[in-house]
Model the fold of this input.
Amino acid sequence: MKQFVEGSHAIAEIVKRCRPGVVSAYPITPQTHIVEGLAQMVADKELNAQFVNVESEHSAASVVLGAQATGVRTYTATSSQGLLLMAEVVFNIAGLRLPVVMTTANRAVSAPINIWNDQQDVMTVRDSGWVLLFAETIQEAVDLHLQAYRIGEDPRVMLPVMVNMDGFILTHGMEVVDMPSQEEVDKFVTPYSTTYKLDVDNPLTMGYLADPDYYIEIRYMVQQTHQELLTIIPEVAAQFKRQFKRGEGNGLIEGYHLEDAEQVFVAMGSVCGTIRDSVDEFRSKGKKAGLLKIASYRPFPKNEIVKALSRAREVAVVDKSISLGGFGPLYTDLSAAVSSMGAKAPKVSGFVIGLGGRDITLQSIQEVYECLSGKQVDCEFIGLKKELLAEAK
Amino acid sequence: MTQTLFKPGHTACAGCGQAVGARLVIDTAGKNTMIANNTGCLEVFSTKYPESAWCVPWIHSLFENCSAVASGIEAGLKYLGKKDAINVIAQAGDGGTADIGLQAISGMFERGHDVLYVCYDNEAYMNTGIQRSGLTPTLTNTTTSPSGAGSLGNPRPKKPMPEIAAAHGIPYVATASVGYPQDVQKKVKKALSIKGPKYIQMHVPCPLGWRHESNMTFDVAKLAVETGLYPLFEYEYGKLIPRKIAKIKPVEEYLKVQGRFKHLLKNPDAVKQVQAIADYNIQKYGLNAEA
Done:
């Protein structure tokens, strides 16, 4: 059913329909509307779940960890500092192979404190073993939550999945959303069932100490699962497309005017919408621009990306975060991926944009585009206010 | 107790009070129990992959979050409709409880989860090498509160963790000592018969950290109680129930058998200071059977 709805409310609705048994969260802007919605649904008996109000994000993640370990489907959501406080548990959930699903309302990280959007928060747990999916629109965020439970709970996977949606832009934006009915969701997301759980009739020890004789193999197995995810995620995306008759791309990447594109923007999340408009504009002027959207950042779909960029001459990686002292994280990953192309590799430039909620306009994308014809850059900030920098000196 | 749910073969030190304490707890609780365990000695010596001493469902996550993990287990079991048939125990050492785990335990108490929390109190961070914790007693020599020309060891008193627990208005709080196994069993049994959050803090000597002979574990534990330095009491729905001491002993008897207090013995003022703590406990909790 199509509804004009706020992003957070859409997420609360879809999570409800996925029937989590335990929801736990701690309030942080701009995640709050999602969990408020779920709390109300529990209060109204629309959702049969235990809603656990905790004293910190560290405990929110720990509660869903414990609940998931009993074999129950769980959900949590956070943002920014909340994700950083959770980080220790986030790594632990993946290491314990518990398929928790979490929404991250992407937001800048302190200091200075800033509640607006960028994607720095998720980058702090990039290496945790979670599947990291990025939504471009509210509709996509809704659809990714359904796929997140399917992917994570797949017996071949058993890993947590994070759906990233840009804070405010998607969480507080309004959009017409085709909301799947309960019946449709039940068909796609079947009840969670596993033997890997705390069970008094079959007592397991979870969370062993692994010494140097065992540790690296256990980590390798997570890496291997991520390799398998490169076929499992497209499988789930294809099933989703079959049932719901929507969804672009293959679940890992999505192209826009890529077929003959010579200049390709690579980006994640809502900025892809702006870039699409820019691409249309460039195309109307006869320029062969295109967009490669990364939908799955972890696993990183290296081969798909190489294939998608096989005809590109110049690539602009647009990062909404930065590894300070290094480069934009997506730029680093993408550079590693195209290095296998040898002489056929496109010229890859890296751009940092929109930190702390600075508007990303068509003009910003134009600026990126203009840089491509010049000297190769690896960490070019777009839209800096030169006068502020001069003042600070 | 012919069959134990905490199997031998683990790698605890000889004379480890915590190993005995943990076995007492789980064997009293029985097989319909799930445990969330913080990082610490107990976790390390009982679950070195691929071996585990535990015959009940057991999970270790992190150093400070067993209260929250246990809260999640309880919520999961409630959702499944299985909570009434299963005990949930969260357990940790003194550092994992009173220092790094304090926020999470407070959250668990305040939310009213039906969980028994057991703190195995060996009065320092033993797993990392005898560093001072919030439950290290006054004037103890530890590796981070060493005695020296300008120091008599840990300058601060033990954090009143049982009172902090009781202040949450939870139905049951108790201290216990591994030197009194039947008392431990009685308290665990009582705690598990009560719905809601429960807190038991059990004194468990550590021969390595306390520097006493490994065959002295029970004697040292008993001396702590008999001197009044480790008062045994319960707060049942807020009402104080002390375990009285038949014959109170001077604190020197406890101090002199442990290397961690050796530096105090030649300092009468320091011994007096420790005696004052014992006297205060005896009065506060009404421990003197003859009074």
Residues 253-392 of chain A form a domain with the Rossmann fold fold (CATH 3.40.50.920). Residues 11 and 276 of chain A are 24 Å apart (CA to CA). Residues 215-244 of chain A form the longest helix (30 residues). The longest strand of chain A covers residues 101-106.
